[in-house]
Amino acid sequence: MKVEIYSDIACPWCFIGKRRFEQALDRFPGGGEVEVVFRPYQLVPDAPEQATGHRAWLAERYGPQSVAMDARVTELGKADGIDYDFDAALHVNTFLAHRLLHLAETEYGARKQVELKESLLKAHFSDGVDVGDRERLTEIAVATGLDGARVSAYLAGDEGAAEVRAQLAEARALGITAVPTFVFEGRWAVQGGQEASTFLRVLEQVTEQMAGQAAEQAVAEAAQPRPDAAGTAACADGTCAI
């Protein structure tokens, strides 16, 4: 099973959703075989490249209720082992960090990308790190096991930028307007940082759906005429059952 998670580094609920989904995977038979890939999404695509204080930015955007918003997320995060420090957190553009996640996936694999995502979320929300700064991003990447020279050269140029922009456009085309959004096998979507028990039920239901579709396809293929020398029998790609 493949799960693509549309998520932003600057999204506190994305951190909670990641932790809860991982708790579900720990309880799900075969959870270690589920491929998890993070896809980019920017809540504030026009955020500045120079970091400013999170508290001041949130207050400007949401007014007095911003304090209660942060307090609620902080309390919820504690239950999932997340130590939010919104006084230290910085508001900054996350495009560079998404490029780094793209590098991790394409050159190191999905598991390393998941590790890097955790490191970036912790750096942003718990450690007050500027995740828009190339040097700090390189430090985080090296600590996660990526090659420093490669990361430094990659972030210094535009490599991966077009691919990340294409993925951001794909998210918009899919109709994703809030994160985290979990897309299972490219067919079923679940939005929000759901409870681990909810994610577990979804994993079980998707597994059942996949098994049922596989059985239906096997029956359909068995009923198809055998191909002759003139050509091959047509078969469905499975997407019509979405």
UniProtKB/TrEMBL annotation:
It comes from the Bacteria. InterPro entries: DSBA-like_thioredoxin_dom, Thioredoxin-like_sf. Keywords: Isomerase. GO terms for molecular function: isomerase activity. Residues 3-202 form the DSBA-like thioredoxin domain. This is Protein disulfide isomerase FrnE. It comes from Kitasatospora cystarginea. The gene is frnE_1.
